[in-house]
Design goal:
Chain lengths: ~100, ~450
């Protein structure tokens, strides 16, 4: 089983254990799957809005590896083999300067 | 109730003493923060000691040559962090060997380079900290104490930090937030990582010596290697190890490369330890879980900090620029969120060049344009929560604040402040996230 978690910034939005088969599909589909497991509806709305914003940032952490991804990327191909945990962090655009 | 390391417990004793009418430690004259703590004995090295020649000229306590034991073995290959000593003799039966340019050489396994570095940091911890203290660059924008009046509510701030903030951070950390890659979480019970006090240790930086994953020192040269199984090419250095074969990709003079790797190692130590050791002033780390930290400056100011692991930023020219890790912080000047969380509150805690940090000195604010509604909402939160959220925003600003359609202008162009460029494939191999400029 793979422990999966979803955050919006520092706020935990969802988390559940999934079998490797359930990690099929895109990053966006996986986020939607996690949101459907329950949680704060307001936070879910913010996450969905951010996922649809191309300027937003989605980070995936698996073990020691962190990478930025887009909703359309296939999730399983992004993860190292035999991964035990996956944490997805969605962030609004953060302007600098 | 003991909340953390020796410094935290001392602060609790002071508070209790004040409550009982006795003067606190800070109010007594001529007493250092670490009074009474004897230097800890260091772990005995389980491999040949790294007490080899100090880096010539710089006085750094150990050097790349000692990590690789080239003073003993001369020729060495490093393949995927594994050190292999290439001797000059024929291999005996049953002994591991490598073929180097048509010659069979017995090899000795030297262990993990990363592990050697960790052992060197354990063995030379105090000397390394002292060296970093002397060699940390001067801050140009004011340190963590400079230019900041002590608040009237200093005691309320202290109570907030010890009784609310640190427990909240500890709870959040135990909820499964893993430390960022490459940073060793300091055990809060072990005290600040200054090399003093029992149980403390100097963390080894996450440094990749110049040259990539496969390279070798052989004879007068250094060779960058690449896995290769094709025909032998005359004149090119080749290393065959069982079924693995590597061929020369580029070469440099041994002494030149050794010097580059020394500089890389020393720079990594300064960047890893700089935040806690700043030009002789000792900043205490009251709490550090590898992601968040709480600092106490020599003049009694509390800073909450967030580590930013190494990252890469795509520039407008589509090149990918590499940035070292950083630490961002907010001075807890009050228990009133409105006074703590504002436009100029998130700062870089140590000298750090970045396109959104003016001046780049310790304590320089990060430019983070936000609508006023952002700060109103932040200030309505409990202060501990507001601090965490704003520091996360600061982290994302450093990493991902440069993008197409961002109407703000950076202080400096990205190529003027980055640590060089990196290929996307290399960044992925190193686990360094790339924050894209073009996102549509």
């Amino acid at each position: 089983m793979v422990q999966t978690a979803l955050r919006f910034g520092i706020q935990k939005a969802a988390g559940t254990a999934m079998s490797p088969k359930e990690l099929a599909g895109t990053v966006g589909q996986h986020i939607e799957r996690l949101l459907e497991t329950g949680g704060d509806p307001q936070l879910a709305g913010q996450i969905r809005a951010a996922v649809n914003d191309p300027q937003a940032i989605i980070e995936i952490r698996s073990g020691k590896q962190v990478q930025t991804v887009t909703p359309g990327m296939p999730l399983r191909e992004l993860l190292p083999p035999k991964t035990a945990e996956v944490e997805i962090t969605v962030s609004r655009p953060h302007v600098g300067g | 109730m003991a909340l953390g390391g020796p410094t935290v417990r001392r602060l609790h004793r002071e508070r209790q003493a004040r409550a009982a009418g006795a003067p606190g430690l800070r109010e007594r004259q001529g007493e250092s923060a670490s009074a009474g703590a004897a230097p800890a004995p260091y772990a005995v090295a389980r491999e040949p000691s790294t007490r080899a020649t100090r880096s010539a000229g710089s006085g750094f306590p150990f050097n790349v040559a000692s990590l690789l034991a080239t003073d003993r073995f001369g020729n060495v290959a490093v393949l995927d962090d594994e050190i292999l000593h290439l001797t000059w003799r024929e291999p005996r039966q049953g002994e591991d060997w490598a073929e180097v340019s048509n010659q069979r050489l017995a090899i000795q396994n030297g262990g993990s380079l990363r592990r050697r570095l960790e052992q060197a940091c354990e063995e030379h911890g105090e000397a390394v900290v002292e060296w970093v203290r002397r060699h940390s660059p001067k801050s140009s924008g004011g340190g963590l104490d400079a230019g900041r009046d002590m608040p009237d509510t200093a005691r309320e701030v202290e109570t907030f930090v010890l009784d609310e903030l640190i427990p909240a951070l500890r709870e959040a950390a135990s909820g499964g937030e893993a430390p960022p890659r490459g940073l060793q979480a300091v055990d809060p019970a072990a005290g600040p990582p200054t090399g003093k006090g029992p149980g403390s240790r100097t963390p080894a930086p996450d440094v990749e010596l110049d040259g990539g994953k496969w390279w070798a020192y052989f004879g007068e040269c250094w060779f960058q290697l690449v896995p290769y199984f094709g025909r032998r090419t005359p004149g090119r250095f080749r290393l065959q190890l069982g079924e693995r074969a590597y061929v020369e990709r580029s070469r440099l003079k041994r002494s030149c490369m050794m010097e580059r790797q020394e500089r890389r190692l020393q720079r990594a130590m300064v960047e890893a330890l700089g935040p806690s050791v700043d030009r002789g002033e000792e900043v205490s780390r009251l709490y550090d879980d590898g992601e968040h930290a709480v600092l106490l400056t020599p003049q009694g100011r509390y800073w909450m900090c967030r580590r930013v692991p190494p990252y890469a930023v795509e520039g407008p020219n589509r090149r990918i620029y590499r940035f070292d890790g950083a630490e961002v912080g907010i001075w807890i000047s009050s228990v009133d969120p409105a006074r703590v969380l504002h436009e100029a509150s998130a700062c870089i805690v140590h000298p750090y060049a970045h396109m959104f940090v003016l001046g780049g000195g310790a304590g320089a604010p990060i430019c983070m344009p936000r609508p006023q509604d952002y700060y109103r909402r932040l200030q309505r939160l409990p202060l501990a929560e507001g601090l965490r959220r704003h520091l996360e925003s600061a982290r994302m600003t450093l990493c991902a604040g440069l993008f197409h359609n961002n109407l703000s202008s950076p202080y400096m162009p990205v190529d003027a402040v980055a640590r060089g460029t990196i290929r996307a494939s290399e960044a992925r191999q190193l686990g360094i996230p790339i924050y894209r400029y073009y996102r549509n």
